[in-house]
Every structure is written in C-alpha cells, then in structure tokens.
Amino acid sequence: MTPRHDTWTSHDTEVATMGNEVLDSVRTLLPGLVERAVAADEARRIPERTVRELTDAGVFRMLQPRRYGGLESDPVDFYAVVREISAVCCSTGWVASVLGVHPWQLGLFAERAQDEVWGDDRDTLVSSAYAPVGRLTPVDGGYRLTGRWSFSSGCEHAEWVLLGALVVGAQGRPVDFLTVLVPRPDYRIEDVWDVVGLRGTASNDILVDDTFVPAHRVIRNYEQAQLKGPGQKVNRGPLYRLPFGAIFTSAVTAPVIGAVSGGFESYVSLMKERVRLSMGGGRFAEDPFAQVAIARAASDIDATVLQMDRNLRELAELAANGREIPMELRLRTRRDQVRGTERAVAAIDLLFKTAGGHSLRRGNPIERAWRDAHAGSVHVANDVERALAMYGRGVFGLAVEDNLV
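^ that's the sequence the OP posted. Answer follows.
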C-alpha cells in the first residue's frame, strides 16, 4: 500500500505536479475529442476509446485514494481538467467529471467496500443515481434493495453504481436515507437516453429487483453531511474531510462552465472575420454591441471560475489544518456554485443570440455548447433558487438542513 498522508501540506509540490501532469496529458487528447464530439452526440454515448484515453491520462484517479493508486489531487486541479475537456466536448467532460468524482465518495465507504471495487482493478469505474427512489428493507447483515433510477451518466462504462435509497421501517414509512453501492451483476441498464443536450453522456436508467446489499456497502447521508464516513479510518487525507455538497455539486457545474468557455472561444473564432449581409453590412467585430456581448460573457465566465476556485481552496485549507468547516462557507460554496451555472448559461445565451442565424445550424460548436449548458443546468444540484434560498436562510440565522450543503 502507498503510505498515508494526513495533510496536503506535506506533499503540496508532489500533488501540484501530478495535477499538472494530468492536465498536460488531457491537452494532448483534445484534438481527438473534437473529432469525436459529433459522433458522441449521434451515438448518445462517448466512445470506449475516449474512456480509455481519459483513464490512461489519470483523470479518473485524481480524487481516488492513494492507497488504491489514486492521486488525491487538489479538487481545484480536477475541475480545471474537467473544464478543459468540456470546452471541446461537454458530454465527455460531464462523464469525466461525474465518474471522476465517485472515487472520492467511495473513499468514504468502509475499507471492505473499497477493496471489492478496486482490489483487482484500480481503474474500475463507478456511476451513480442519487435520487432516493430506491426502497431498502433491513434484513440480517444488510438490506434488500428494489428500485428504478434515472440519469446515471456514463453507466455503461462502469462496473458498480451508487444509488440513493430510503430505509423503510415496520410501518412502511422511510426512516433513513442511504447511498448504497451495487455491483454490475445486481442491476441492469435500460437505454432510454434520447435528449436535447448532453446527448453523449448515456445517462440511462438503472433497475434493481430485490437484491441483497451487505451493510458495509452503504453510507448514511446524514453522517456524510456531518463530514463523516467509515472510510476516513484508512483514507486520512484532508480530501476525504470535505463536504459532499461542495465536491459533487462542483462536478455538475464545472462541465457547464467548460462548455460555455469553449463556446466563447468558438464564437470569437467564427465571428472575428464575419461580414454582415444585413443591418448595413460591415465586419461583425466592429459592431459595438457584439463587443459588449463578448465583454459580458467573458466576465461571467471568469467570475464563475474565480469564485468556485476560491471556495474550494478555503475548504481545502481548513481540512488540511484539521479545522472545522463552518456552515457559512459551505452555504457560500453552494451559492457560488449555482450562480456559476446561472452565469455560464446567461453567457452562452448572449453569445448564441448575437451569433445570428448561423448559430442555429445543428452540430456547430456554439449550438452544441448552448444545448449542453442548458441540459446541465437542469440537474438538481444546479437548482439556483433552492440553493440561494438556503444561503439566505443561513444569513438570517435560520436552520438549514440539506444533503447538498
């Protein structure tokens, strides 16, 4: 086993180097991802070749425990990699982000569960569907699980899945909310994913019919919200003392920001030399309204990245120093995360509108970024009004109870 590290501060340089190496490796893959982006849209899944390339580049190991061959990277580095991928293909970036964040959560499970997933193959991937639609019935040694879940992104590339489920008591009422870990032989995938945006994510349905889940493959969502998990006994680094509500929700905003950033670059490249055939003609780049649109969009993209990175760094510093993470920071992190999504969508809307009729052509980078950003924005973790209301409750001194904080 790799020696444990209790803080980031003892190996900051090493972690930074690893993070940079993954980003450098990913950048060499971008031309191929560009070439396969349209095909991924049409096939409704990213190619196996892409998953192998991302695996070889180390993307899926960035948040994986070191004792299982992972890098335990700074989350800021991980989301930078996600944005870079999403800028050329948001479906690929979304799958990379979601599958890449699950090793972090698995690191909170009991050691036995981690051994089952990574004992034979440290590149084993895990998908998820967190909505608490499953039904858990307590039995000796664990639970019986039944349910159907939607939106399990990248599930066809994974051998395990994390599922949300409610424990049902003797009166038939839910008494607890758990996340359960289920192996591929115990569930089936139903291909239902045919949507407007993020088409290549293959976010299909998961079906489980009365399967046994041993007790070591579950984690209580309440304990997780308290920044606790049995896996902390073996994964003692600060990465595993961060809030789920920060790490996972960032994983569904980073691809949206990346897609919009890529759309911005495509917009500038396409519109720079365009000559208008209407509205008096002239070069598009000389139109002051277009110049203002670019300035607004660029500012919003920058603001999303700067705020999210600031919050993640503050969380990481507190965890590394063994200090308590205050609710104020957790709520601010969620506030800025959903505002990041909102700002990114506003930016691509502005660019899409000012690009004119040419932006309507199916498959062009601006159109695809617009579709993908809007699709990502409807994820429950990107529910802007709910997250902002939680922040407001906190500021007013009211109690906030939510698993995504």
